Amino acid sequence: MLSERDDMRVAVIGASAGGVEALGEILPHLLGELSVIVVVHLPRDKPSLLSRVFTPRCSFRVKEAEDKEPIASRTIYIAPPDYHVLIEKNLHLALSIDDPVHHARPSIDVLFYSAADALGARATGVILTGANADGAAGLAAIHAAGGTTIVQEPAGALVRDMPAAALELCAPTHVLSSSAIAALLNKYTTTERDAR
Amino acid sequence: MDTQVDTRAQDMLSRVGDIALTTLLEAIYLRYHQDFRGYARASLKRRVAQSLLKFDCPTISRLQERLLHEPAVFTEFLRFVTVQVSEMFRDPSFFRAIREVVVPHLATYPSVKIWVAGCSSGEEAYSYAIVLHEENLLDRAIIYATDISGQNLEQAQAGVYALQRIPQFTQNYQRAGGRRSFSDYYAAAYDAAALDRSLKSRIVFSDHSLSTDSVFTEVQLVSCRNVLIYFGDALQDRAIGLFRESLCRKGFLGLGSRETLRFATDAAAFTELVREERIYQKC
Questions:
Q1: Which residues of B33-71 are buried (b: 16+ CB within 10 A; e: fewer)?
Q2: B262 and B127 both lie in a single domain
Q3: What pLDDT score was predicted for residue A1?
Q4: What is the CATH number of the domain that holds B254?
Q5: Burial class of residue B268 in the structure, from the number of CB atoms within 10 Å of its CB (0-12 exposed, 13-18 middle, 19+ buried)
Q6: Which residue on chain A is closest to B93 by alpha carbon?
Q7: Beta-carbon separation of A97 and B84 below 8 A
């Protein structure tokens, strides 16, 4: 069954320590027909300020992910504190309060596994700066499903552990600086549009 | 080490194919009349993958065989895929709103009835009991706490929690506007805390499935928090239909902090009462 949603491009991005700065070099620069779902590790009981921080800086709509929300194009969804975010096969978002993974809820691995399962080769996974190994296994899952995998250059990351852990587990499609990641995501969406 | 464990879980996840999962859920329904067919698949898949590790089964079909032939294993499986480690007064601002906005309405009824749907191990039902106690309503209240897992219900009924969780409960209680000291409500022994018996006296724990059962009584407040996130669209609609039917006119519905009626068929039957806390009122 083909539908217009079948060529939808979804990028999932995971970041931890230093993540807000790295995201600042990516999210405001995004153009084209892309949906983005972001997990950043933050204290669980602080209301997330990320959508407020990024809304005025981005041309995309920025909002916290809600349960059963259909994924829309040109929108950046931020995982709410203390919930995992997953992608269903019908391209709706789903939340869960299952146990933390790598001591993290939201966990990057949980989002990335579901992206691999729901989107297969259409998934793009991005691992940015951070101090733990969350996301590494999930990125490998996206890789195994034929999706595109991108890791921030550890040398340029504020905290290199998370990109380094991802590189240990998977040979990603691209290893790039954060600004080059934005350019690459835009290139995907524009070249695909031109090709149609 | 963390990474290793997780790769193993991922390995299991890759073994949970869609067809095998659908077959498993169908078999469970036919054998036990527990209906997971309408659950949201992404989370359910993770739970089933983890249960492969827990029950030491290399494949879904092996798990299916065990579940069908060993009822005791199914009982454990049921708990494993449904249990939610909640907290007492999870999301303190929600319970503060219940106390300040909803309880004054409840107080106008001769008897107060609350339904905690999907009560898991009971933390939320006891939180309501404490609020009602402090508002002098507990004596004329009944809290129906329902779940599909008998093991969950047993644990809920016991009202015993690991001592290490008490500091979190205490902090939540205080932030939720608790009027006393949380230590008034439990007795600690060894590494466990047992909740006061008086809290239990007005709670009825009972087996009920939002997938297959119907409404059992009229209530003024339904609390169903972080349960609908595990349901697919049609099952969510069914559950909200039950809540609508069970609630009296102008009755209240409390959802989890990131759940919304926005994508539900029956959304128009409710108005937002305390928007940011996801407290709704039936029209």
A1: ebbbebbbbbbbbbbbbbbbeebebeebeebbeebbeee
A2: yes
A3: 41
A4: 3.40.50.150
A5: exposed
A6: A45
A7: yes
Question: To the nearest whole angstrom, how far is the Cα of A31 from the nearest Cα of chain B?
Answer: 28
Residue of B nearest to A46 (CA): B91
The H-or-E segment that residue B112 falls in is strand B112-117
Does A118 contact B3 at a Cβ distance shorter than 8 Å? no
Query: Does A194 qualify as catalytic in the annotation?
Result: no
- Active-site pick, A41, A84, A102, A143: A41
Q: Specify the number of domains making up chain B.
A: 2
Nearest chain A alpha carbon to B234: A68
Q: Which domains does chain A have, with CATH numbers?
A: 4-190 (3.40.50.180)
Residue pair A89/A123 in contact (Cβ under 8 Å)? The answer is no
pLDDT class for A8, splitting at 50, 70, 90?
Answer: confident
Scanning the structure block, which residue is given the tokens 């981005």? A58
B64 with B166, same domain: the answer is: no
Model confidence over A143-182: pLDDT tens digits? 999 999 999 999 999 999 999 999 999 999 999 999 999 9
Quote the minimal CA–CA distance from A68 to chain B in Å.
Answer: 7
Query: Which of residues A47 and A139 earns the better pLDDT score?
Result: A139
For residue B40, what are the domain limits? 2-82
